[in-house]
Each structure stands twice: as structure tokens, then as C-alpha cells.
Specification:
The complex is a heterodimer of chains A (130) and B (114). In chain A, 24% of the residues lie in helices and 47% in strands. With 130 residues, chain A is an alpha+beta fold. Chain A has a five-stranded mixed sheet with strand order 1-2-3-5-4. In chain A, a hairpin with a 2-residue loop joins β4 (98-113) and β5. Chain A is elongated and about 50 Å long. The mean pLDDT of chain A is 93. In chain B, α1 (12-41) packs antiparallel against α4. The chains are: A alpha+beta (130), B mainly alpha (114). The interface between A and B is medium-sized, with 18 and 14 residues.
Chain lengths: 130, 114
């Protein structure tokens, strides 16, 4: 789903959004490079299910974002989460060849592991083929 | 005779009971299917996490069944990190994949029921 990844990244990078500035532009697909500076975001394609209903073609996609921050206080990462929501909740990224029907946040969870704060956020995206 | 009209009587309470019973067993079977895929998906380190995957009936009316994983009693709270990843570990999404893997079979199960 390369076109979706491009759409997600473009939305993030175009116009230097607040979340872009928050994480210094560090948004990675699937894996961050070794020794990446905190904070940063990694997003993953969890699943991409093709669905056929009536005469339309749909892609039902789950995308997970993990925001990582090594500060002691959770206040920074909480702000990053708020700004991620502003950017992506019900957003309409350009996905070439598809129309975005919905881009909905399903849940979010804040945890701390190994002195690193992690905000896990899951979105469900429904795309209709043009 | 049709010309004289016809009257059909049946006990719809029994029908409702039968439908509910059938739906309940399909719902349980669906949850068991998801659980069995999740058990297959999870990597085996100690087997504790795999054993912690269980099907439970929801405490809410019409709540169906739940596939549960992890808990504090058996110290498998780390399920979250296995499912969603950490700063050092990629997510495995063993639970979410299980739903995806079971989807087609569950659809067939309910089609058979219809």
C-alpha cells in the first residue's frame, strides 16, 4: 500500500505541521534507524483486507503509530499524541487511485518501558478504489 | 383446504430459544477460532503467553464472547509489548492477525447458520 504510506507521510511533512516540528520530522515506516534521537514516530501496516461489496472495491486497513519519547515526564508525549490526533483524525490524505472514506482513530494507549514513553495509536482506514 | 383459508400456529418462544442457542454456539466457535489462531501466532518463549489466551463469555447481556490475553496473576502483562512492539522490538500483532485469519471461516460459519 505504497500510495497510502506516501499519503500519510505527505500529510505529516507538508506545511511543517505541529507534530512534524514536535518530532523533528522523524516519522518512519516499520522501523526507525539505529540510534535515532528521541522523540520519533514509527508507523506500521497492521493489516490490509480487500473487501468487495456490491460493485465497489474497498481496502480496510489498520495502521498503528508508535510515538517514542525518553523524557521523564509524560507531558511532552501527551502533547505529541494530541497533535497526531489533530493531524490524522478523520483526515483525508491524498491516496493516488483511491478515495478515503474514513480515517478513524480506534484506540490509544500510553505505556512506559525501559525508561521510554510509548504512545500506541491505532487507526482504521477505509479506501474505495476510484 | 386453501379455499377455506389456513391458519398456522407455532410456538415462537421455542423458535427464539433455538435461534439464540444456535447463535451462541456460533459466536463461541468464532471466538475459539480467533483464540486458536492467536495461540499459533504468538512466539513460544515460555508458553505462558500462549496459555493465557482464553475465551470468556461477556458479562454483558448480548455481549457475546471475548478472547482474552495476558494478566497480572500469571505475569503475562508483557502481552502488550509483544502485540504492539516497543522501542527495541517490532510489533507481532498476534491478536489482530488472528481476527484477520479467522474472518473468512467465521463468515462461512454464519452463512451455514443462515
Amino acid at each position: 500500500m505504497r500510495v497510502l504510506f506516501e499519503g500519510i507521510y505527505s500529510l505529516f511533512a507538508t506545511g511543517f505541521t505541529t507534530i512534524y516540528t514536535n518530532v523533528g520530522g522523524r516519522l518512519y515506516l516499520s522501523e526507525a534507524p539505529q540510534n535515532t534521537n528521541f522523540p520519533y514516530i514509527v508507523y506500521y501496516l497492521v493489516s490490509d483486507d480487500y473487501d468487495f461489496q456490491f460493485t465497489e472495491d474497498y481496502e480496510d486497513i489498520l495502521i498503528q503509530f508508535n510515538i517514542f519519547d525518553d523524557k521523564v515526564s509524560p507531558s511532552n508525549i501527551s502533547n505529541y499524541f494530541e497533535n497526531l490526533k489533530i493531524l490524522y483524525d478523520w483526515s483525508n490524505p491524498v491516496v493516488v487511485g483511491y478515495t478515503v472514506i474514513k480515517f478513524v482513530r480506534e484506540f490509544a494507549q500510553l505505556v512506559r518501558d525501559d525508561d521510554v514513553w510509548q504512545y500506541t495509536v491505532q487507526y482504521r482506514i477505509l479506501l474505495e478504489k476510484d | 383446504m386453501l379455499g377455506d383459508g389456513a391458519k398456522i400456529e407455532w410456538d415462537d418462544r421455542q423458535l427464539t430459544i433455538d435461534i439464540n442457542k444456535s447463535m451462541d454456539s456460533k459466536l463461541r466457535a468464532s471466538a475459539e477460532l480467533v483464540a486458536s489462531y492467536a495461540r499459533k501466532n504468538v512466539g513460544i518463549v515460555s508458553g505462558k503467553l500462549r496459555k493465557s489466551i482464553k475465551v470468556e463469555k461477556s458479562k454483558f447481556k448480548d455481549g457475546g464472547y471475548l478472547v482474552k490475553v495476558g494478566g497480572h496473576e500469571d505475569r503475562t502483562y508483557y502481552w502488550f509489548f509483544v502485540e504492539y512492539g516497543t522501542v527495541d522490538m517490532l510489533p507481532t500483532w498476534f491478536m489482530r492477525w488472528a481476527i484477520r485469519q479467522a474472518k473468512a471461516k467465521i463468515r462461512r460459519l454464519f452463512k451455514k447458520a443462515a
